[in-house]
Amino acid sequence: MALDELKTGDEQIQVDNFTFLVEDALHENYGKFTVDYSNDWLRRGFTIIPDRGGASC
């Protein structure tokens, strides 16, 4: 995750007051993502979780 500017081929996704840019190649390879934020004493910050579309073993 990084601050970036919109480039040709990027997908722009608006959620509330946030705009996310996703490179087409990442979107094609991984599909949907969940962006989670935690302010817990054990874990603080953003986590990006790709939706793999199924259960894992």
TrEMBL record:
It comes from the Bacteria. InterPro entries: HesB-like_dom_sf. This is Uncharacterized protein. It comes from Paratissierella segnis.
